[in-house]
From TrEMBL:
Belongs to the UPF0045 family. It comes from the Bacteria. SUPFAM superfamilies: MTH1187/YkoF-like. This is MTH1187 family thiamine-binding protein. Coiled coil: none annotated. GO terms for cellular component: cytosol. Residues 3-92 form the Thiamine-binding protein domain. Pfam families: Thiamine_BP. It comes from Streptomyces muensis.
Length: 97
């Protein structure tokens, strides 16, 4: 499964990069395949391990912010691995053709 999620601290002002970095750090230290872009962090793995990472990422932000917003989208497709790479490669192949 791939989960794309965004954790946003609320009530801390406009500059939230430091708080978001706390969440991304949790994801990167998890050892699961992941990518971060300007809007979301995607992480790939089994249901329980991915959801645990999301929960810990939210907790890292929650530890420093009075309120946290979480947006989450999941692609649940049993038996598929390396979706983070293969999905993008498929789109790139179509763009090149």
């Amino acid at each position: 499964m791939i989960v794309a999620f965004s954790v946003t601290p609320l009530g801390v002002g406009e500059d939230v990069g430091e708080y978001v970095a706390d969440a991304v750090r949790v994801v990167r230290e998890s050892g699961l395949p992941n990518r971060t872009d300007a809007m979301f962090t995607s992480v790939e793995g089994e249901w329980d391990e991915v959801m645990d990472v999301v929960k810990r990422a939210v907790a890292a932000v929650e530890a420093r912010a009075p309120r946290v917003s979480l947006v989450l989208k999941a692609d649940i497709r049993p038996g598929v691995t390396d979706g983070l790479t293969s999905k993008v490669e498929t789109v790139e192949r179509h763009l090149a053709g």
